[in-house]
Design a protein that fits this description.
Blueprint: H1 3-10, E1 27-29, E2 32-40, H2 51-68, E3 72-82, H3 86-102, E4 107-114, E5 122-130, E6 146-150, H4 155-165, H5 172-178, H6 184-190, E7 196-200, H7 204-215, E8 218-222, H8 230-236, H9 240-248, E9 254-259, E10 276-283, E11 289-293, E12 296-298
Helix pairs in contact: 2-3, 2-6, 4-5
The structure holds adenosine-5'-diphosphate, thiamine diphosphate and magnesium ion.
Family: Belongs to the thiamine-monophosphate kinase family.
Binding site for substrate: 44, 251
Protein name: Thiamine-monophosphate kinase
Length: 320
């Protein structure tokens, strides 16, 4: 089954208005922003990744969803699966602690289980945030809004490719893959201005299409405007192939915001070193997603980003 099919089925269960029809990254209940993301060995991290970086990543990917809604971290519940390797598990918790301390996220509780020997590691975290004066949804985009990317794209996917070639790889791209930085302060600064906002976790093109879909609009993206880091360009160049890789690789934990054209977020006093780039706009007409480079249209790549899909089609009876 595909992730989208599962969520479609879940929509019939999640009928509370707070669930926002499962059409956003978070739920919004009584002034709280709620999100839950899991990470699994072989799916979100490599067996060779350090335990502390896995703990950090679990917290960071959840905080990124709060950042996308401009929320302030208020608390977390951790789902911990002990692997039987005590040193690994302790180091994992060091990583969880470091990220919680860095972003002022109090751990409030959770659950602990032990995995059967050799089972892949899977962890979950529920992050709870306090909503700001406005919570920008995926669905709030207006025709004419400018699309802004906050943070660089493609670093993590490039880091993962380096690690696949050589698990001993190091450097800034590997660091972004292992220890993503949630853009909490930027999300808080932009939320009051944005008609729509979300974090980019599955790939810019897929997430931009989701924002356009939720807003009943079309997204136009200038592939040349996608923000790339110096490390990314040094590794892969800034040509069209590299840019499409950056726009579809996912795991970025950047933000995508739709902001009215008459507001210039570059005028805000954003934290120094912030990368923020005007990458396109939302329009009323046209295909759901259109790409261009210079003045020329660019055909959409086959895969716009990462979507989970189960490999097994074995019926339940065969699984026992
Ligand atoms: N197993 C699940 N049970 C209930 N809701 C789910 C489940 N999986 C995903 N969702 C909901 O579907 C929506 C989309 O999920 P997802 O794509 O994972 O969001 P994000 O990329 O922001 O983490 C969210 O509202 C999420 O809460
Ligand atoms: C070992 C490994 N293989 C592949 C990837 C790439 N990858 C896995 S999940 C994902 C997208 C984000 O994960 P998801 O579970 O969809 O998070 P969410 O969108 O729910 O925040 C990407 C790009 C990875 N991070 N690690
Ligand atoms: Mg999720």
């Amino acid at each position: 089954m595909r992730e989208a099919q599962a969520i479609q089925r879940l929509r019939r269960i999640a009928t509370s208005p707070a669930a926002l029809g499962l059409k956003d990254d978070t739920a919004v209940l009584d002034g709280l922003v709620l999100t839950h993301d899991s990470i699994a060995e072989g799916v979100h991290f490599l067996s060779t990744d350090t335990a502390a970086s896995v703990g950090w990543k679990l917290v960071a990917v959840n905080l990124s969803d709060l950042a996308g809604k401009g929320a302030t971290p208020a608390g977390a519940l951790l789902s911990l699966a002990l692997s039987g390797d005590d040193a690994w598990d302790m180091s994992f918790l060091d990583g969880v602690e470091a990220a919680c301390e860095s972003y002022g996220l109090p751990l409030l509780g959770g659950d602990t289980i032990a995995l059967p020997p050799g089972a892949p590691r899977v962890f979950g975290l529920t992050a709870i945030g306090r909503a700001g004066e406005r919570v920008p949804l995926r669905s709030g985009g207006k025709a004419g809004d400018v699309l802004w990317a906050i943070g660089t794209l493609g670093d993590s996917a490039a880091g993962l490719e380096l690690l696949r070639l050589d698990p001993a790889s190091t450097g800034p791209l590997v660091d972004v893959y292992r220890r993503p930085v949630p853009l909490i302060a930027l999300g808080q600064a932009l939320a009051p201005l944005a008609n729509a906002m979300m974090d980019v976790s599955d790939g810019l093109l897929l997430d931009a299409m989701r924002m356009a879909e939720a807003s009943g609009l079309s997204a136009e993206i200038d592939i040349d405007a996608i923000p790339l880091s110096r490390a990314f360009i040094a590794e892969r160049s800034g040509d069209l192939t590299a840019r499409l890789f950056a726009a579809t690789g996912g795991d970025d934990y950047a933000l995508l915001a739709a902001i009215p054209a008459d507001i210039d977020p570059l005028r805000l006093s954003l934290p120094s070193g912030t990368t923020i780039a005007r990458i396109g706009c939302l329009v009323a007409e046209g295909p759901r997603l259109a790409l261009s480079s210079g003045e020329s249209p660019v055909p959409l790549p086959e895969h716009l980003g990462h979507e989970h899909r189960s490999n097994s089609s074995a019926p339940m009876a065969d699984r026992s």
